[in-house]
Amino acid sequence: MARIELDKVSKVYGDGFEAVKAMDLDIADGEFMILVGPSGCGKSTALRMIAGLEDISSGELRIDGEVVNDKAPKDRDIAMVFQSYALYPHMTVRDNMGFALQLAGVDKEEIRRRVEEAAKILDLEQHLDRKPANLSGGQRQRVAMGRAIVRSPKAYLMDEPLSNLDAKLRVQMRAEVSRIQQRTGTTTVYVTHDQTEAMTLGDRVAVMRAGVLQQVDAPQTLYNAPVNLFVAGFIGSPAMNFLPATIEGSRLRLPIGEVELPDELRRALEASGDGSRDVIAGIRPEHFEDASVVEEHRLAEGHVFEAKVSLTESMGSEIYAYVEYEGEGATSDALEEIAQDAGTAEVPGAGETQIVTRLDPTSKVRPGETAKLWMDTRKLHLFDVQEGRNLTLREQPAAA
Amino acid sequence: MGKRGTREYTFWTAGLAAVIVAALFPVLWLLMLSLKTPDTIGDGRFIPEKFTLENYTSLFDGGFDSPLLRPLINSVAIALIATTIAIVLASFTAYAIARLDFPGRRAILGGALAIAMFPPISTVGPLFDMWRTLGIYDTYLGLIIPYLTFALPLAIYTLVAFFREIPWELEQAAQVDGATPFQAFTKVIAPLAAPGMFTAAILVFIFCWNDFVFAISLTSTDSSRTVPAAIAFFTGESQFTAPTGNIAAAAILVTIPIIVFVLIFQRRIVAGLTSGAVKG
Questions:
Q1: Sign of CA dihedral A44, A49, A55, A60
Q2: How does pLDDT run across B215-252, given as a tens digit for each residue?
Q3: A309 neighbors A7 (Cβ within 8 angstroms)
Q4: ipTM for the complex?
Q5: I need a surface site. Which of A181, A196, A250, A285 has the fewest CB within 10 A?
Q6: Is the pLDDT of residue B279 over 50?
Q7: How many contacts does A have with B, using Cβ atoms within 8 A?
Q8: CA B10 from chain center: how many Å?
Q9: Which of residues 109-148 of A touch B (CB under 8 A)?
Q10: CATH class of the domain whose range is B58-266
Q11: Cβ-defined contact of A87 to B277 (cutoff 8 Å)
């Protein structure tokens, strides 16, 4: 149980590459903090600095108020779960889990007791005397977690522990991780590039990009009030749609039509004091609907438009309709980085002049037809074109 | 399978048999020679007319001063000591080279390779002089030092390759679990590098055991003469007969420990020892 504070922590490599830039993060005792971001954003580096496996170039790292920059990993009393599990292949599961305790000089009886208790929690009892080579991926992952649990450390550090598991197993293990953390109440720092994991597991989520912390907030706040284009496009699946837009007085001109700016947006815009006309408008797929499904009185609260449907995906519980619009797509570095990381940059024509909409499963839209859709304009976000800053923040995000 | 299968099978079996015979025939001939009586040595028959174990027993005539006992003890002792020291030193070196990035790393590796290329016989002259001055001529140490010099590069290269195969994360996991770098090495890395260590050990042992050049040049008495050199000093029944039978017997005796050594350690070289440690 410990409080972990990163105070302007930076990591600069020999060749000048800045992996982490002056990161400020305060993790409360018992909190489940997620570090999320695209590949290469510095989240693993930050985690390894907390573990002591990487040197800190500048700034202070404090655990329970004590500066630990120069403390060896073994003296920090933290347990780490590696992405590749890093189990000791020549030892049985029992020995793997008991290794740290053995090194610490804990007496044999105590080691046996703790290992068996952890094995019980993780359902590994019948595997205790087997070697890692004979276990399945899920079992190995549980052994890796067991190795961390037996130590009752100050904090768990997990580096993408679920990324090597298949989809179904991942969902199960996610619940497992959450259950264990709640049961032990240990401070946990968890790195992942999967935003679904981030949203479902964390008390708070820290979004990172290119070594810089973008926003640290509860998952719902990140979803409702992303501070910039990057966070908006990163959180949420399917991703938020971005359209180029122009503000004209109290109206907003979008490729799919002109809309009256809702009051709250106008107020927020004034508050952020930005006078520019060209912006990027963002709206999530779930804030669209088939106009024929929307109740009469709600239609006026949004914007109705027609668009050609190019593709539909029926999920059973909802339908995703991909619609085309005239004009250009919205471009920005942040959006390009997200596309690179997701791999969609490779796909020709993906997302350029396309909106993804999530519709009620009773909707009758068909590909190739023109559909009448409704957009909830109260859920629009407007972003500065240059820096990607959210000009229309309504819910105040928490400080890091 | 069918016809094609059986024909291929026969072909390969015949081929393998031919290779095995070619490789083992000299050894078998030697074995047969060692069982022949002195008067039938040169009769050219594979299976001896008359069997005798004279050649073996006469090697150990005279107890401790027998032609072969002392040299055999010397060979075993020197080879084992040299192998142990070589493996320990090579492990530390290989670990540093494989894991750490320090200035001069390439130079050390290159230097080691250069030394291995050096013809051992060219160092015999200077060594003879030096050892006599230093007083380690005709001692265990006098042989162990050149053996280490020429065997270390091989051992280091073998071990660097094995260490590179071990995932770095295992040591990091050990560090986080509370191990000092030395503990991480001895408890986690060394057990996993065991196949490499045994491979290197076999190679070094064979090198030391079979060496003739240094053994004959740097020893003068049975106090440290090893078997290859001792065989050269065998005397026959009379000044006109070559001690062929004795030499053959000594050669067979000397080969047995090597075979035993290799068989014991060969089982330890199990591939895939690190499977299951990391995913993918």
A1: positive
A2: 999 998 888 899 888 888 876 666 667 778 888 888 88
A3: no
A4: 0.74
A5: A250
A6: no
A7: 85
A8: 35
A9: 131-135, 137, 140, 147
A10: mainly alpha
A11: yes
In which residue are the tokens 């026969």 written?
B10
A73 touches chain B (CB under 8 A): yes
**Using a CB-CB distance cutoff of 8 angstroms, which residues of chain B are in contact with residue A131?**
276
Compute how many other C-beta atoms are within 10 angstroms of the C-beta atom of residue B23: 9
Q: Which residues of B touch A80 (CB under 8 A)?
A: 172-173, 176
Out of B178, B188, B191, whose CB is closest to A74? Answer: B178
Q: What is the pLDDT of residues A41-60, one digit of tens each?
A: 899 999 999 999 999 999 99
Residue A387 has a pLDDT of 80
Query: How far is C-alpha A26 from the geometric centre of its chain's CA atoms?
Result: 18
Q: Which segments of chain B does DSSP mark as H helices, in order? A: 2-34, 54-57, 69-99, 105-117, 121-134, 140-165, 168-176, 181-184, 190-210, 213-217, 227-231, 244-266
The verdict on a CB contact (< 8 Å) between B172 and A74 is no
Alpha carbon of A385: minimum distance to chain B alpha carbons (Å): 42
Q: Which residues of B touch A134 (CB under 8 A)?
A: 276
Residue B8 has pLDDT above 50, yes or no: yes
User: In chain B, which segments carry CATH 1.10.3720.10?
Assistant: 58-266
Are the Cβ atoms of B276 and A164 closer than 8 angstroms?
no
CATH topology of domain A229-384: OB fold (Dihydrolipoamide Acetyltransferase, E2P) (2.40.50)
Q: Find how far residue A345's CA is from the centre of its chain.
A: 20
Whole-number percent of chain A with pLDDT over 70: 93
The tokens of B99 are what? Answer: 């894991």
Of the candidates B178, B183, B280, the beta carbon closest to that of A84 is on: B280
Radius of gyration of chain B, Cα coordinates, nearest whole angstrom? 24
Task: For residue A291, give the DSSP letter.
Answer: T
Task: Verify whether the Cβ–Cβ distance B173 to A86 is below 8 Å.
Answer: yes
Domain ranges of chain A: 4-224, 229-384
**What order of strands is seen across the sheet that includes strand A354-359?**
A288-290, A370-375, A303-314, A319-324, A354-359
Among A88, A162, A163, A169, the strongest candidate for a mutation testing the B interface, having the largest count of B CBs within 10 A, is A88
Amino acid at A198: A
Q: Please, what is the average pLDDT of chain B? A: 83
Least trusted range by pLDDT, from A52-66, A153-167, A286-300: A286-300
Listed range (A18-32, B144-158, B228-242) with the worst mean pLDDT: B228-242
Q: Of A175-179, A331-335, B138-142, B207-211, where does mean pLDDT reach its minimum?
A: A331-335
8 A C-beta contact, residue A54 and residue A47: no
CA–CA distances in Å: residue B197 to residues A89, B94, B238, B248: 17, 11, 47, 32
Which B residues 8-37 touch A at CB under 8 Å? none
CATH architecture of the domain with residue range A4-224: 3-Layer(aba) Sandwich (3.40)
The whole-model pTM stands at 0.78
End-to-end CA, chain B? 36
- Report whether A91 contacts B193 (CB < 8 A): no
For B215, counting Cβ atoms within 10 Å of its Cβ (0-12 exposed, 13-18 middle, 19+ buried), the class is buried
